[in-house]
Structure formats: structure tokens, C-alpha cells
Amino acid sequence: MYKFFFNNVLRRLDTETAHRLASTALQVLPIAAPIVRPLLKTPQQLRTRALGSTFASPFGLAAGFDKNAEEITGLGLLGFSHVEVGTLTKHAQPGNPRPRLFRLVADRALINRMGFNNAGSLAAVPRLERARLRKNRPVIGVNIGKSKITPVEDAVADYVYSTQLLAPLADYLAVNVSSPNTPGLRGLQELTMLEPLLTAVRDAAGKTPVLVKIAPDLDDAQIAGIVDLAARLGLSGIIATNTTISRDNLQTSAAAVAEIGAGGLSGVPLVERSLEVLRQIKASAPPELTIISVGGITTGADVLARLEAGADLVQGYTGFIYEGPLWAHRINKELAALGWHGNAAAR
């Protein structure tokens, strides 16, 4: 049903317009919670303990979909065990000019150059406060980034401002230094810049777990350096990976991809690279470092592959666009059918 609707209706709409319609529906979905919740119940065997919280399953929604913390409850009802909101920045900002979100249907992929469009960290505070009061809510991650108008040399103060506001309302905090759509941001992954940034955020976050989100385009030495740094600073984990600037091995024509222009690529083309990065992190990370794997997830089998490769939690985003509102519920059912039992299943 959804695939028919996607192919005959949604594909005819501008990608961002379709996203906005979905956002509106998710904001009103909690009205139907008494009906929806029992129908989309997550199997108990998937319960997973990580980052000091209990997750209904290991599968959640990556940052970028709910940019302003407006859809947390609705997304939880659909079966996402955790929702990572944002990216939120100190200053409200409109993001890059439209069009800035593009479907590559043949590749089950997206290219985006949204540019951290959001209403700002302060505006998210009352929404997060309300979401935290909801019964049976998903685990809430908050993803923070640098404002576009903030010079790179002032990035630490920018991140600390958002941390001080949002960490008390988050179950975990994700430090985004890996989006390709904010000038200078990926340069913060260099260890000389990353260490003081993560140290300041860690100190400002108090007891809230802090993770760093990295790009898939780093080389092996850079990844190893960040793993070592995260362990040395006592961070709670690493999220791997963000979108890629690569355009390799796409079925969409090179001319069509070139016409779209710059932006981060997400979806199925990231499967191989995100799995490679996960395995490299797992090989050198201490056991207490939580790893969240992101990139190219479509099925329960994909999630299981990440868990077996060492991920503690798994996130998706692009698959939600192509698979529809029952996607997370279907993944949870498939994961249970494959015999996965979370480490909190008996609790």
C-alpha cells in the first residue's frame, strides 16, 4: 500500500514538502495512541540496555528527521526505540536555499544539503520537556552542531551553550562534527580541534552520556585517532556514520547526480562503508564504549548484521522515506523472528 502511495503520490511532490506533510501527521498521531500502541507493540525480547537507559529495541531513528523535537512521541508510537532529534544549533537558522533534499530512487538513497535548518536550541527546550513527561516515550537523543554564523574558532562556546540547555533534557547527547553541509564543520574532526571541543561538552553535560558522530569519509588512521580520543576522554560512545560526500557505485546517472550538486548522500549506498567503519571501531574500542551504527539500514536482517558486528544500537533514516510509517515496526518484528534477544529482555 505505502509503496503504491509513494510511487504514485509522494514521488510527485517536492521531497521537502512530502517530509513536512509526514511531520504534521506525526505531530497529531499521539491523539490515536490508545489504538496505535497495542497494534504496533515492540516484542519484549528486544529490550536493550545502553547509555544508562532501557531501549524497547536496539533500532531507532537517526538525527535529521525530527529537527526541532516536534515528533518524538509519534515516532515512538511507530516503533522507534529512540529518536535522535536535531541537529540543533545555538542560533536559529533557515539552512541552505531550496531545493536541498533530493531522492535517488534507483539507489534507495537521498542527497541533502539542508544546512542544519532548525529553530535553535532554546526553542527546543519546552518541546523536550513535554516529550519527557509522556508515558512510554522513546529514549531521547539530542544532536547538537555548530551554528553557521559562528566562526570555527568559536565553535566550543557555541556547542557548550547548546549542551547546557539541552543535556538536562536528553537521555544522551550527540556531538555532530561530521555533516558536510556546514562550512568548516568537518574540520572539527581533526584531533587538535576535536579534543578541546569534546572535553568542554563532556564537562558541561554533567551526567548525560556524550557521543561523537563521525563521517564515513575519514581514513583508518583518523577513525583510530577518534576512537582513542573518545576512550581517553571517557565519552560514552561513537555514532558511525553520518552522510558521505562520495558518489561512487550509484545506479542513478552521473549526469543526474551532478545536476543535484553538493550534499551528503545517505541510504543503501552507505551499507558497505558504514559496516567497515563499525568493524574498525569495534576492533579497537574498549567494551564500555557504546557504538551506534547508522547507514543503509532497510531490513531487520540489516540491523542484525550491525549488532553481530558489534553495534550496541542501530539507527536508520532514509529507509523511513522509502519504506513508510510501518517500517520500524516491521524491522522490530523481523529482528525478533531472526531470534535476536536484547541484553535487557529478561528485565
Unreliable stretches covering 5 or more consecutive residues = none
Whole-number tally of structural domains: 1
Computed over alpha carbons, the radius of gyration is 19 Å
Q: Quick one: how many beta strands?
A: 13
CATH architecture: Alpha-Beta Barrel
- Major β-sheet strand ordering: 3-13-12-10-9-8-7-4
Order of helices and strands: HHHEEEHEEEHEHEHEHEHEHEHEHH
The best one-word shape is globular
Number of helical stretches of at least 4 residues: 13
Ends distance = 37 Å
> What structural category do the secondary elements indicate?
alpha/beta
CATH homology group: Aldolase class I
User: What percent strand?
Assistant: 15-25%
* Major sheet details: 8 strands, parallel
Query: What percentage of residues falls in helices of 4 or more residues?
Result: 25-40%
Instruction: State the name of the first-level CATH class.
Output: Alpha Beta
Please state the average pLDDT score: 93
What name does CATH use for the topology?
TIM Barrel
Oligomerization state: single chain
Structure overview:
- Monomer.
- FMN binds at residues 63-67, 87, 143, 176, 213, 241, 267, 296, 317-318.
- Pfam families: DHO_dh.
- Substrate binds at residues 67, 112-116, 176, 181, 242-243.
- Its EC number is 1.3.5.2.
- This protein is an alpha/beta fold and 347 residues long.
- It has a single domain, classed as TIM Barrel, CATH 3.20.20.
- Helices cover 39% and strands 16% of the residues.
- It is built from 13 helices and 13 strands.
- The strands form three sheets. Strands 3-13-12-10-9-8-7-4 form an eight-stranded parallel β-sheet. The protein has a three-stranded antiparallel β-sheet with strand order 5-6-11, with no helix packed on it.
- Helix 7 (191-205) packs parallel to helix 8.
- The radius of gyration is 19 Å and the shape is globular.
- The two termini are 37 Å apart.
- The mean pLDDT is 93.
